[in-house]
Each structure stands twice: as structure tokens, then as C-alpha cells.
Amino acid sequence: MTAHAGTEALGGLRWTPSLSVGDAVLDAQHRELFRRAAEVIASAERGDGQVAGAIEFLHEYAAAHFGVEEDLMVQHGFPGLVRHRAEHARFIEDLLELSDAHDRGGQEARVSVRLAAWLAEWMVRHVAATDTELGRWLAARGVSGGE
Ligand SMILES: [Fe+2]
Ligand SMILES: [Fe+2]
């Protein structure tokens, strides 16, 4: 019961204003990213066979969003570029690996719980720490993630 309640909480993963990085465009993209991640988690919890599709839907948006952030970092000479970009690359790698593990089945329930926990934790940690550092740096230079 406790574990179930825990995974339900993960399914409720959502962007909140406390996760704002101080840039309206990046915040809007994070909101969409969280929405898609929550769908992956909900699908994994339901065991509805739609996880692979939900992961692809998240992967697509994550890749585009990471590209926006990386372009901003390159364009403005952000000093933390290498480390930030490595976090993005690792995320995509791990996401696809978990997707493969999920597809192979077998330990499906275990993979789903691991996927949900990892995804929720990564999203919050990356946005709250790494992206916030970038957002503050851009804001201090009067740069918007917009255009
Ligand atoms: Fe981000
Ligand atoms: Fe990022």
C-alpha cells in the first residue's frame, strides 16, 4: 500500500512555479517536458503497453528542448556548457536504455517502477539545479531563452 501510494505520487509529477528557472520560454518548455514525463510514468504504472510510445513522445521533445538550451549556451559562451550538455546526453542514453529494458519485458513491473522513479527524480533535479543555474546566468546577462 505504501509502495503503491508512492508510485501514485510519481504519476502526479508536474511542473510547479517553484521549478521556474527565471525564463518564460524555458519554463514553458519544462512544463511540456514534465507533462510528457508524467505520461510515461502513468503509462508504466497502468501497464497499458503504451510505454514505448510515451517514451518516444518524451524523447522527441526532450531532444528538441535540450537543443534549445545547448544553442543558448554555445551562443552566449556559458561556462558550464560541457557538464550541462553531458547531463542531457546521459539522460537520453539512460531513457533509451530503460525503454529497451522495458520492451524486453520479463521484469516489466520492476523496470516500470525504476523508470518512473528515475524519470521523476532526474527531471526535478536537472531543472531545479542545472537548468536554474543556466537560467540565472542568462538572466544576469539580460538574455532571454525566447529568441
Ligand atoms: Fe531544461
Ligand atoms: Fe538542461
Structure description:
With about 150 residues, the protein is mainly alpha-helical. The longest helix has about 35 residues.
Q: What's this, in brief?
A:
The chain has 147 residues and is mostly helical. The chain contains 5 helices and no strands. The model is unreliable at 1-8 (pLDDT under 50).
Total helical segments: 5
How is the main sheet built? none
The CATH superfamily name is Hemerythrin-like
CATH topology: Four Helix Bundle (Hemerythrin (Met), subunit A)
Please describe the structure with a list of short key phrases separated by commas or semicolons.
147 residues, mainly alpha, Four Helix Bundle (Hemerythrin (Met), subunit A), 5 helices, disordered N terminus, binds fe (ii) ion
What does the secondary structure layout of this molecule look like, with pairings?
Elements: H1 2-11, H2 24-46, H3 51-76, H4 81-104, H5 108-140
Helix pairs in contact: 1-2, 2-3, 2-5, 3-4, 4-5
The structure holds fe (ii) ion (2 copies).
